[in-house]
């Protein structure tokens, strides 16, 4: 069973770049039908999708993050990463990595499963 | 972006109660609607995908229905481990968006 685990600094200074890594275990990141995703949840509020990338590339971003977010896949280490530049206090949140599953076929279901446990990133000087 | 709303925002219930949560999209999303359960400090857990398909390993007391713009998550008999926040999410079009959540507590 695939499991995901986020890692990275818990504190980032304003204007700097937030960098997180998600390690995939129990399966290959190169498996078809999975889009490797990042999401976040601000304290006390709802969930927000940042973007995803297929194992071979072609990332797709939420327009709200397109100019600041970069998602990359490291197939050799079975990991994928998020870089979010020019962070402000508004980027303080719990960040989750997740697999966006596309079952395949016409009108196939798509959903996030599984998710990592999440990691809190605080933006503060 | 597709806007998702949920009602109620919170509800109080007892073990054994039947609980119904409603999710609405501001445009037709066919059956591209998923439900997740979130407990504090834990990862969101997929319960229902494609509006009515039960994720493997999820108890059968959870069910989903709806299509188009209106959807429902039902818990037929609430169990102690079900107290959590529930989110709907549309996968019809990017950016994928979530509802604001419904918290079920005692």
Descriptive report:
The complex is a heterodimer of chains A (125) and B (106). By secondary structure, chain A is an all-beta fold. In chain A, 0% of the residues lie in helices and 55% in strands. Chain A has strands spanning 3-7, 11-12, 18-25, 34-41, 47-54, 57-61, 69-74, 79-84, 93-102, 110-115, 119-123. In chain A, strands 2, 4, 5, 6, 9, 10 and 11 form a seven-stranded mixed beta sheet that branches. A four-stranded antiparallel beta sheet of chain A has the order 1-3-8-7, with no helix packed on it. In chain A, a hairpin with a 5-residue loop joins strand 4 and strand 5 (47-54). Chain B is mainly beta. In chain B, strands 2, 4, 5, 6, 9, 10 and 11 form a seven-stranded mixed beta sheet that branches. A four-stranded antiparallel beta sheet of chain B has the order 1-3-8-7, with no helix packed on it. In chain B, a hairpin with a 2-residue loop joins strand 7 (62-67) and strand 8. The chains are: A mainly beta (125), B mainly beta (106). Chain A binds chain B through residues 45-49, 60, 62-64, 96, 98, 100, 107, 109-118, and chain B through 30, 32, 34, 36, 42-46, 49-50, 53, 55, 87, 89, 91, 94-101.
Write the layout of secondary structure elements.
The complex is a heterodimer of chains A (125) and B (106).
Chain A: E1 3-7, E2 11-12, E3 18-25, E4 34-41, E5 47-54, E6 57-61, E7 69-74, E8 79-84, E9 93-102, E10 110-115, E11 119-123
Parallel strand pairs in A: 2-11
Antiparallel strand pairs in A: 1-3, 3-8, 4-5, 4-9, 5-6, 7-8, 9-10, 9-11
Chain B: E1 4-7, E2 10-12, E3 19-25, E4 33-38, E5 45-49, E6 53-54, E7 62-67, E8 70-75, E9 84-90, E10 97-98, E11 102-105
Parallel strand pairs in B: 2-11
Antiparallel strand pairs in B: 1-3, 3-8, 4-5, 4-9, 5-6, 7-8, 9-10, 9-11
